[in-house]
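User: My advisor, Dr. K., asked me to get a structural model of this assembly before our group meeting. I'm new to this, so sorry if the format is off. These are the inputs:
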Amino acid sequence: MNVDNAKSQMRKGMLEYCVMLLLRDRPHYSSDIIQRLKDADLLVVEGTLYPLLSRLKKDGILTYEWQESTQGPPRKYYVLSEEGRQTLAALDAAWNEIANTVTKLKEF
Amino acid sequence: MIKKNITINFCGRLYNIDEDAYELLNHYTESIRRYYSKIEGGEEVADDIEARIAELFDEQKAQGRVAIDIECTEAIIKRIGELEEITEPDDSEGSDNGSSESGNDDDASTTERIKQGANAFANTIADSAQNAWDTIKSEKKYFRDGQNALLAGVLAGAAQYFGGSLLMWRIIFLVLILIPIPVLDWFGIGGILVVGYIIMAIIAPVAEKPEERLQMQGRSVTPQNIAEEVSKPSRNGTSTLARFLSVLLKIVLCIVGIWLVIIFVGLLGFIAVFFTEPVTWFSTWWNWDNGSYVYDAVKELVWIAGGCGICALGILIYCTFHAIASSNGKVRAMGFGQRMAWFAAFIVCIIVMIAACFKTMTSGRHIEEGLHHMITPNINMITPNIKIEYTTTMTQDSIVDGMDDAQL
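Assistant: The format is fine. Below is the predicted structure of the whole assembly, which you can bring to the meeting.
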């Protein structure tokens, strides 16, 4: 079994959830999201984030608003929509379940 | 090392960027844009990615970097990821893992084993066939290779396209041209090869852009490969001896090439002269006045044939030198339309020349027949008819005069 491959699969599965988590409290600029995800070692190449954001936006989970920036052109700040919050709650539950299962299996 | 630097307007801001870095960046953003233009909301993804690149450029500028160079661009592309890494593999990953599981070794009889062996063999063959098919289908394209060119890079391109070492290609080519092969005589093979070389030099494009160089080598056009290709030293410093030899070879090839082209066109001209020869020959030999009138009629055709031959030769020589110069990067290579126009002009010249030769040839035959009849005393009676048919009115007049005289 290829460990790296399995790891990247796990990361991919988690990425959407983590992006939504980051946006739960306040709007974020995409480069901030990138920085956070990179710090958490979740993102290998930055470009992956943009199609993901675009898809989440298409699904109505998040929206964005333009904000002026002190350095450079205006920036897109991503916000979680109401639908996004509901989805996030569902995902939270799912995550807890998975985490519980894994913990149990490990103890067993 | 000196590099050309340009200013680009990228995401509404200006950046000083090296030319090779620009090539790389441009290809990268283009490929992303092309991919995402097919996807709903993809334009926005491409915009976002470009904005991110601009932001990273800004970071570099803030750190005091005056010009964005190729290393910096490469690093940024690596950071953002190549197109294949970015795209979401949602539905492209099919899982097929049910093919190789029927391996019960319990009663693996000999027939079973033979079957397996045959299967494996068939698989290998299928694989290699697949490989060959892939090569044909792949992006590999024929280009003249300007970087490794001695003359126009036709052979260097062939070595890239068909494989094999360039030296081998050159040796075989030279041997076929220079060494007389008894059966396939001197001109036959050598001339065809040289003319073929020139035609290839005219119609085949030279690989100029990094993408084209990659296509020529059959490598996939990815930003990584482009970066590698762009940052490669354009012409590796060779030893003095090698340079001397290459110059020598160039001179020899030029002389041989021009010589063979002249022979080729000369031969076509000779065909024309050969078939018109009877006329001049007869007119001088028999000192026949009418012969010169006949010759006048055919002379135009000879002029046309000769003119076309010279034009064709001129086109060949001009295009060859242009191709050589373009493969050395001294002149901008001809565009597709330009190449095709020259090629068409060349073909038209050759066709008109051959047609004129042919026409001359047939008229020559008729005249020959006519003259033959005229000089044969036994069939003197038939002569006037033939003369009226094939020669000038003046002859007719003289005949009529003669008849008038007789009547008088």
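One thing worth pointing out at the meeting: The first strand of chain A starts at residue 28 and ends at 29.

User: Perfect, thanks a lot.
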